[in-house]
Amino acid sequence: VQLQASGGGLVQFGGPLRLSCAASGFKFSRYAMGWFRRAPGKEREGVACISSTADAADYGDSVKGRFTIPRDNAKNTVYLQMNSLKPEDTAVYYCAVLTSTRNYWGQGTQVTVSS
Fold first, then answer.
1. Confidence category of residue 6, pLDDT binned at 50, 70, 90
2. Contact (Cβ atoms closer than 8 angstroms) between residue 88 and residue 37
3. Is 105 left (phi over 0), alpha (psi -120 to 50) or beta?
4. Which end of the chain, N or C, is more open, meaning fewer C-beta atoms within 10 Å of its C-beta?
5. DSSP 43-60
6. Residue 97 pLDDT
């Protein structure tokens, strides 16, 4: 399983940013996917998850209404569309494959929101 996250960077308060996670080494369309984040000094937080067929998604309370998690099974890619970003969204963002037994993690991508 390989997960390559990209798209992080520095963005101004209120701005948008889209993260991408390219997957390989497994049958992408069969698995739910998720985005998590870890801010400095804080525990890892679940941000969003999406079912294998994209018919269901769920979001953390802190991002509801601002973030969406589309996926493209033809491209083996899951995205995190982040809008109305706040300084408290600053964190390292990770994508993950969600299975019944364990999660598989990719490397993180840093998102920094300036105030």
1. very high
2. no
3. beta
4. C
5. --EEEEEE-TTSS-EEE-
6. 97
In the predicted model, what is the mean pLDDT of residues 81-93? 98
* CB-based burial label for 17 (10 Å; 0-12, 13-18, 19+): buried
How far is Cα 18 from Cα 82, in angstroms, rounded to an integer? 6
DSSP letter for 84, please.
Answer: S
What are the angstrom distances between the C-alpha of 36 and each of 45, 64, 96, 114? Answer: 6, 14, 8, 20
Are the C-beta atoms of residues 79 and 71 closer than 8 Å to each other?
Answer: yes
- When pLDDT is cut at 50, 70 and 90, the band that residue 41 belongs to is very high
CA distance 57 to 59: 7
